Amino acid sequence: MNSFRAPFYLDNKRWFVTCAYNPRFRAIWLHTTPIYGIEYNSPIRCEVSWIDNICRITQRPIHEEVNIIADETPFGILNLCVYHIENRGAQHLADALQHNMTITSLDLHDNKVQDEGVEHLAAALRHNKTLTTLNLLRNKIGDRGAQYLADALRYNTKLICLNLLGNEVGNQGAQYLANALQYNETLTTLHLWNNKIEDQGVRSFATALQHNKILEILDLSGNPIGDEAADHIANILLDNTTLKQLWLWNNNISSELREYFKNQDNRVQC
């Protein structure tokens, strides 16, 4: 207590309050500076100070005074996978992403984020100008979450790779994303392996590929897709020279059609 009292009360003679959300421990900290004797000295966290009420992502040691000019930690790649941040954590993180100017890649796989949490992340994507890769692998994102992301893709001009592998996106969600591809001019990679997309959803992507000249990798593996839809989207590739890889592994495609793709177009991997 003395190590805290001396610099805080006797020297600085001021009250500086900071509120931080620690995603790893799913805890909200309300503290003053300086802080000593805490085990978690430099955790990654979303932090708000009373100076400007702007949420920032930082890893600054918590006993150091907040500097709103030079405080933002230049992460580049931020890996928060398997933190179980869920919807509340996604909301706090999204608040910080709206103002962050350093993170280019965000990994949130296996975090139990649902549509509600994705709504906040999608809102952040409308304002964020640096994030190029967003990994939402194995969360609990359905059609409504796909709609939020699709709406964001209409306005976002930086995101290059979106990974939705292992979620719950169905035909309606596929249609939302496919429609967004007709307007988006930056996304080059879209992973939708192991969702709930059927032939109807694949036809939506086929329509989008007639207009989109940006997407290079489309991953629809692990979905209940049959011959008709697979053949339809493959035929679209005759006029689309931008798409370099169409992944259709682990679907309901017949061996005959697989062999045909193998011999006719090596861009189709199944």
How does the SSE layout of this entry go?
Elements: H1 2-12, E1 17-22, E2 27-32, E3 45-49, E4 55-58, E5 77-79, H2 86-97, E6 105-107, H3 115-125, E7 133-135, H4 143-153, E8 161-163, H5 171-181, E9 189-191, H6 199-209, E10 217-219, H7 227-236, E11 245-247, H8 255-264, E12 268-269
Parallel strand pairs: 5-6, 6-7, 7-8, 8-9, 9-10, 10-11, 11-12
Antiparallel strand pairs: 1-2, 1-3, 3-4
Helix pairs in contact: 2-3, 3-4, 4-5, 5-6, 6-7
Main location: cytoplasm
GO cellular component, one term: cytoskeleton
Subcellular location: Cytoplasm, Cytoskeleton
**CATH third-level topology of the largest domain:** Leucine-rich repeat, LRR (right-handed beta-alpha superhelix)
CATH homologous superfamily of the largest domain, by name?
Ribonuclease Inhibitor
Helix/sheet category: alpha/beta
Strand order of the largest sheet: 5-6-7-8-9-10-11-12
Largest sheet report: 8 strands, parallel
Q: What count of domains describes the coordinates?
A: 2
Structure description:
Strand 3 and strand 4 form a beta hairpin. The chain is an alpha/beta fold and 270 residues long. It has helices at 2-12, 86-97, 115-125, 143-153, 171-181, 199-209, 227-236, 255-264; strands at residues 17-22, 27-32, 45-49, 55-58, 77-79, 105-107, 133-135, 161-163, 189-191, 217-219, 245-247, 268-269. It folds into two domains: 1-73, no CATH class; 74-269, Leucine-rich repeat, LRR (right-handed beta-alpha superhelix) (Alpha-Beta Horseshoe). The protein contains eight helices and twelve strands. The model is unreliable at 8-17 and 34-40 (pLDDT under 50). It is elongated and about 60 Å long. Keywords: Cytoplasm, Cytoskeleton. Its main location: cytoplasm. InterPro entries: DRC5, Leu-rich_rpt, LRR_dom_sf. It is found in: Cytoplasm, Cytoskeleton.
